[in-house]
Amino acid sequence: MRRWSLHFRLFVAGAASVIAALALAAMGLSLLFNAHVERRAVADLSIQLDQVLAGLALDPKGALTLPEPPSDPRFRQPLGGLYWQVQGKDFTLRSRSLWDYTLPLPTGDATDGTVHVHDLPGPDGGKLLTLERHVILPPRLGDRSVMIAVAMNRSELVAEGRSFVTDMTPYLGLLAAFLIVAGWLQVAVGLRPLATVGARVAAIRSGESARLGADFPVEVRPLASEVDALIAAREDDVIRARTRAGDLAHGLKTPLQALYGEAGRLRDHGEDASASAIEQIADMMHRHVDRELTRARIAATAPAAHSDLAAVMGRVLSVVRRTPEGKRIDWDVRIPEGLSARIDADDLTEALGALTENAARHARSRVSVHTLRLADGLRLTLADDGPGIPPDRLADLMRRGVRLDSEGPGHGLGLTIASEILTAAGGILELENRTSGPGLEVRITLPGAAQQTRSV
Length: 456
Description:
The structure is a single chain. By secondary structure, the chain is α+β, with helices and mostly antiparallel strands. It folds into three domains: 7-160; 223-299; 307-447, Heat Shock Protein 90 (2-Layer Sandwich), CATH 3.30.565.10. 49% of the residues lie in helices and 17% in strands. The chain is built from eight helices and 14 strands. It has helices spanning 6-55, 154-206, 221-268, 272-299, 309-320, 324-327, 345-362, 414-424; strands at 57-58, 64-65, 82-87, 92-94, 115-121, 127-136, 145-153, 307-308, 330-334, 340-341, 366-373, 377-384, 428-433, 440-447. A hairpin with a 5-residue loop joins strand 1 and strand 2. Helix 4 runs parallel beside helix 8 and helix 7 (345-362) runs antiparallel to helix 8. The model is unreliable at 400-404, 406-412 and 451-456 (pLDDT under 50).
């Protein structure tokens, strides 16, 4: 139940409520209809009872008779469903429909002419709705006490009720379908703002938007406002953290330079061991500062950031080509204009700078850079024609501080920092030796910015 959507829950609850309400309405209407049918039957039987009473007469021998019974043909048909009976002390008159059956009329009713309603057994074993009246006939009819009764099969009333329910069921079904569809539409319209909230949260995460906004219904607006306030507070916290990290780095820069200077003076005085120890400590401090600066910068990257790959690569190459390693390299760069990735431009510059410098340092004469459009992003590949990396050392290169060559500048942090930057932006950094020749191939996969619409 917890995994069901709110839309589905409300729809099921609404549909169940509609079905239950219409079922109760059907039961109520059926009861009301049955009561109405019974009242009509009692009214009709009352008329027929009066007709029996009014039709009583004496025959030439002085016996009570009913020369003109009610006209309904069912009274004359055996087991026809309508019956009448006149019962005295020593005689019984009955309709032909009763055949040889005698209604078991109660004997305790008063002789005040009041009509009494009974359920009595009938000639076919079913129940009879019976109207009975105990009267004293006038002197012209012998001044005698008689019980007059008319009855009908209750099965006819039950059949009428069932017929009503049968006729009513299709309309109730149509009404239920209409109400369920209307409830589904109501739920869909009512929950649409929540779907909008989800879409805007996804847009914030993908970088298409920075805030949810305030154009929501009154009930959802407080949620949107709180989420926007939370995002703003987080951005402020990240900015403060980045500022503190920057202040820390600048504060440590001078002491670190002083330590390197002291190490140099000690080395000049022949104390190489002490100088190396100080340099190791300074190097460790330098790595920690670089790591914390990278983390602070990554945390502060705005979700809506995006970078133009061609522009960033152009800035990086303009610097690398001025270095001694970069000047000797033939750079084959194929990046179409207008390709954007969802990453901060400064972060991408630093990551590409570290990777490009590494490629220039190890390449023999050529480095190629090209891009490939993926279904959900971009892939940028840097391939050099250098010696490559032993396969068993590829994974080691991604560990902080690991270097294959101990000569030359650097602390072995470039690849690790680049990987951290790209991973934080939702990208992937992969290293692989080229299959078409010597050299290393560095693949960077980045999520595409929202404004990208063209194919490469």
